[in-house]
Amino acid sequence: MRLSQYFLPVLKETPKEAQIASHRLMLRAGMIQQSSAGIYSWLPLGKRVLDKIAAIVREEQDRAGALEILMPTLQPAEIWQESGRYDDYGAEMLRIQDRHKRDMLYGPTNEEQVTDIFRSHVRSYKALPLNLFHIQWKFRDEVRPRFGIMRGREFLMKDAYSFDLDGEGARIAYNKMFVSYLKTFARMGLTAIPMEADTGPIGGDMSHEFIILAETGESGVYFHKDWLKTDLLADINYDADLQPFVDRFTSIYARADEKHDPTNCPVANDDLMTMRGIEIGHIFYFGTKYSAAMGATVSGPDGKNLPVHMGSYGIGVSRLVGGIIEASHDDKGIIWPDSVAPFGVAVVNLKPGDAICDATCQSLYDSLAAAGHDPLLDDRDDRPGAKLAAMDLIGIPWQIVVGPRGMENGVVEVKRRKSGETREVSAELALTMVGLKL
Ligand code: ATP
Ligand code: MG
After folding, report:
1. pLDDT above 60: residue 4
2. Which ligand sits closest to the CA of 155?
């Protein structure tokens, strides 16, 4: 992508309405624009990051055996009346009537919708286990939308729903999602701690919130300090029994709670960390709550009809964009992990119009593009300082800076955004440094 032909409306001033770093930086980097309270447009740079995050989530769901579907945003009220949640959900649900005066709603979640799909097609336990997921916009009329896309009213969620014959099957499904979440977040450079959580109005017997640590987080969290030295990247084979792996993680004390009760805490005071965190995922096992209410039954091996055991598994895909920035930024701007960066490498031409600079940039750009590295070429006519500051603000992980002074000695400057380290090398070596196999 040539920056001169791109739409990157960066802001020089710090927007006053933004209280936390991720919100400020997303506005300054031209990633999003507010449409109304808690509702945002995603501009080209923001959309690229959102898509990269969604792609990682999708890949890991796929590896864990979940199947992608796409359910609509608008749902009929009837299925929510069947489950009993139409009245319970309250003011967070956006209710709409169509031209025939039929009651509809903009889905805040999809348990009812997916249960309706299941009961229409599945009759026998032989079709189980089944796990269906989608990545779709949700609407919740939050009392206090804030922090930009972190607590929006319209937001993008991945939600998966598992169906099993019994509690034992459901536990296996739950463990798969548990593990896939650790892998998903680790791929984004995040340490997410699974914490036992209240199951709240959704009910049920098992639930974990996945939380990343950040001072601006909305959840109070308490955990044993050993959490900070766990290795989350262990290699996992989904066909194996995952229980020992899950036990290893859940045996270390970690809880998300607004108030911590020291009398009931198994961890000695010296070992207890008290911090704040951002919830980026939430998994539940809730048994037959929806299947029983909505008649989603299957015949078991003995021929008896039984309601299926279900779980639901959410990831805040749009919230993750902000969460990653909260976890990875400095006073110059965003520091994208390579895996979700909008562009992997920026080639910065300090003097467009200079024949050697232009030719070197073009050749670097072509090699990177051919190798699938998502390069961004800053070919704009602007002050060198402003160009370098913009690349740091939008957080490009590798930057190759080409200027007339370096060209006299046949070198370009390679900069790693994360460490700030720079090296003057030949254009060829620069390509190897950013990961190109020459
Ligand atoms: P919270 O406690 O933050 O309101 P929740 O428990 O209501 O979250 P779930 O219903 O479990 O959330 O939704 C799954 C995921 O969707 C959450 O873990 C979170 O990452 C994301 N999410 C929920 N509400 C919002 C929101 N208003 N804006 C952005 N993301 C959200
Ligand atoms: Mg909520």
Report:
1. yes
2. 1
Residue 438 lies in a domain: no
d(CA 132, CA 139): 20
Q: Answer yes or no: pTM beyond 0.85.
A: yes
pLDDT tens digit string along 129-145? Answer: 999 999 999 999 999 99
Q: How far apart are CA 43 and CA 29, in angstroms?
A: 10
Ligand nearest the Cα of residue 185 is 1
Among 310, 334, 358, identify where a domain stops: 334
Same domain? For 93 and 142 the reply is yes
The C-alpha torsion from 139 through 143 and 147 to 150, rounded to 10°, is -30
Mutation to probe ligand 1, out of 279, 280, 317 (largest number of atoms < 8 A from CB): 279
- Sign of the Cα torsion 292, 295, 296, 298 reads positive
Rounded to an integer, what distance in angstroms lies between the CA atom of residue 360 and that of residue 375?
Answer: 14
Q: Domain residues for 410?
A: 343-433
Pocket of ligand 1, beta carbon within 6 A = 109, 140, 142, 151-152, 155, 157, 279-282, 314, 316, 318-319
Could you say which of 334, 367, 390 is where a domain stops? 334
Calculate how far, in angstroms, residue 324's C-alpha sits from the geometric centre of ligand 2: 19
Could you tell me if 381 and 325 lie in one domain?
Answer: no
Place of tokens 């440094």: 433
pLDDT tens for 17-34 read: 899 999 999 999 999 999
Neighbour tally for 132: CB within 10 Å: 19
Ligand nearest 194 Cα, by number?
Answer: 1
